[in-house]
Amino acid sequence: MPQTYDIAIVGYGPVGATLANLLGPSGLSICVIERDPEQFALPRAGHFDDEVMRVWQTAGVCDEIAATVRVNPGMRFVNAGGALLVDWPRPAGEGMQAWSTSYRFHQPYVEHVLRRGVERFGTVDVRLGTEVVSAEDQGDQVRLEVRSSSGGSESLQASYVVGCDGGRSTIRRAMGVGSIDLGSHEKWLVVDLELETEREDLGDFTIQYCDPLRPTTYIRMVGNRRRWEFMLMPGDDPAQIAQPEHVWRLLERWIGPSEARIERAVVYTFHAIVAERWRKGRLLLAGDAAHQTPPFLGQGMCAGIRDVSNLAWKLSSVVRGEAPDSLLDSYEQERAPHVRHYIDLAIRLGGILQTTDATRAEERDRMLGTAPERLISEKPRLGPSALTVGERPVGVLSEQVRAADGRRFDDLVGYRFAVLVSQSFMKELPVSTIGALARSNVAVVQDCGEGYLLRLGAKAVVLRPDRYILGTANGIAEIEALLPRIPCPSTAEQAA
Fold first, then answer.
1. What range(s) does the FAD-binding domain occupy (predicted)?
2. Strand 179-195, strand 130-137: pairing
3. How far apart are the first and last CA of the chain?
């Protein structure tokens, strides 16, 4: 008889590990399946934002991660002559998510923290060095055939399987779904260096050098790490350009081999694609398995973390019998338009950077050089679903307020539904409404956030576990109308 789990997660990168951390406290049986026997030791993703830090706060790993990162002051696009074309400054202080708005990080450090976080949960079974050979949705279960690196094979079963297994996803192939090509596929050389000497003159800002002769990116990573990215041009040999002698020729404008060590030099193709479907029965996709974006916004990994923050509580509710299976349909409905917003913006900024035609570059410089574009960080609304019916602020990411004692709101409520209510309105709520909220395991907070409620024009706001707004209320009838949309724990769980 195959070993059976409630949920199987295929892929143990940052997205899969975050999903495991969010599901761990549910008590459900989770299996994490990862092909590689060891954690990947080299850097890949290099940026995340305040919303992602807020997810990791919910997962209980934010303090360890915060100790390893650096606040990113922003990004600038400049032309070949150094003139500013696009400016995207990031404030250094705490933003509306109660975290800084932009961070640089070293992925191996963060993955280590996430994996160590999963070790807290005895119901999570992690299988490293194990490859999924096939996945078959059998109607009431998914049957997985897996093979270990030692050569052994076995069958597993899970109620649901989430493919967090990257751009070449085995689970996406098992679903038989194609991808929507958004028309951006450029090869870039990514070079990670470790400095041997201090080089503060290299600067803290991310710089996009919009030089038609060779578009280039400079990034200050954490500690003594720096990253350069070079667009491959006609005539470049991808196999040769990553060799040290070629890399140092590209870097000679900024740094020499006596000042740094090459940690990694590899050619990537920056794709812009979205899977045609993110769910097929009991199989689901998240992260790069569902979508890929050019890196010019630093939102690739962020999108995957948002995916699993949206998905984890829905999966838990469905598996526990608190919500119908149809709740999972809202996952792609909400997330796909949201991620497309970021991909479209990344493509537009990539168009500014990757202009290699001299005439077009001159036109770009004339237009933006006289009036540089200034970007601000955006928090798009979720796509339409049964949970996002209504006008803004429904479906918008909430602010994270602080309690009088300084604690962040999410630390007060945990990964569940919550109501932030004004103290005056709390006194108006009937005992029956308060009881209904308690039966639905909704946290009620009334000692903070009065200013936020005032900005919303509401006496109460109901927040989902992923911190997006379910609805607002200015009267008892309005808040009671939101209650049927909150998954309710079973009678047996309440009694326990």
1. 5-344
2. unpaired
3. 31
Nearest residue to 261 via CA among 199, 326, 191, 323: 191
Is the pTM value of this prediction over 0.90?
A: yes
Check whether domain 409-495 has CATH 1.10.220.110, yes or no: no
- Residue in 25, 7, 14, 4 with CA at minimum distance from that of residue 416: 25
Cross-strand partners of 148: 130
Quick one: pLDDT band at residue 92, thresholds 50, 70, 90?
confident
Helix 329-353 to helix 300-319 angle, to the nearest 10 degrees? 180
How far are the Cα atoms of 100, 208, 369 from residue 82, in angstroms, in the given order?
28, 10, 10
Residue at 257: amino acid letter: P
> Look-up: residue for tokens 């026997």?
37
Domain 3-69+103-180+274-337: give its CATH superfamily.
FAD/NAD(P)-binding domain (3.50.50.60)
Residue 419, C-beta contacts closer than 8 angstroms, at least 6 positions apart: 437, 442, 443, 444, 445, 460, 461, 462, 463, 479
Give me the pLDDT at residue 456, please: 97
Structure tokens at 308: 């699993």
Q: Which of 45, 15, 51 is nearest to 380 (CA)?
A: 51
Bin 55: left if φ > 0, else alpha if -120 < ψ < 50, else beta: alpha
Strands 469-473 and 102-104: unpaired
Contacts of residues 390-396 at CB distance under 8 Å and 24 or more positions apart, as own/partner, are 390/471, 393/456, 393/461, 393/469, 393/472, 394/469, 394/470, 394/471, 394/472, 395/334, 395/468, 395/469, 396/468, 396/469
**What would the pLDDT profile of 361-409 be if each residue is shown by its tens digit?**
999 999 998 899 999 988 999 999 999 999 999 999 999 999 989 999 9
Q: 43: phi > 0 → left, psi -120 to 50 → alpha, else beta; which? A: beta
Tokens of 186: 């450029």
Work out the pLDDT band at 490, boundaries 50, 70, 90: low
Integer Cα distance of 484 and 324 in angstroms: 13
Q: Are 34 and 149 in contact (CB under 8 A)?
A: no
Measured distance CA(454)–CA(448) in Å, rounded:
12
Asked if 243 and 301 touch (Cβ cutoff 8 Å), the reply is: no
DSSP conformational letter for 26: G
Going from N- to C-terminal start, the domains of the chain cover 3-69+103-180+274-337, 409-495
Name 370's bridge partners: none
